[in-house]
Amino acid sequence: MTTHLGERIRARRQELGLSQGRLAQMADVTASAISQIESGAIRTLKNDTLSRLAVGLQTTALELMEGLHSETASLPTDEQRLLDSYRKLGPPLQDIALKLIKALQ
Fold first, then answer.
1. Which of 6, 40, 43, 76 has the greatest count of CB atoms below 10 A from its CB?
2. Who's near 14: CB < 8 A, 6+ residues apart?
3. pLDDT at 72 over 50
4. Could you give the angle at which helices 20-27 and 5-15 cross, rounded to 10 degrees?
């Protein structure tokens, strides 16, 4: 049983026969960062980094995170409401919502 995200990333990378260096290239991070993530030295990833890793691993960020318990408190109420609302949208509307959020940043 995996205990942290890095272990899941390592297991999936190995399933696909990817080296740390190759995954690093695919996700636009350093091989050192991959090593630190897989060892658990880095346990918190930015959403865009996690997304790029998921693409390189031919999976989704949600699948990588599924079942893992956060070491931090749950999301603040407003953030949880946004997430719940987003999940209720269909894929075309989710895409529009993401573009709107990016435009606001």
1. 6
2. none
3. no
4. 110
Local structure of residue 4 (DSSP, 8 states) = S
pTM over 0.85: no
- Please give the angle made by the CA atoms of 74, 79 and 83, to the nearest 5 degrees: 100
| 3-class SS letters over 27-76 | HCCCHHHHHHHHHCCCCCCCHHHHHHHHHHCCCCHHHHHCCCCCCCCCCC
d(CA 7, CA 103): 34
pLDDT at 52 over 90: yes
Query: Please, which pLDDT band fits residue 69 given cuts at 50, 70 and 90?
Result: low
Burial grade of 76 (CB within 10 A; 0-12, 13-18, 19 or more): exposed
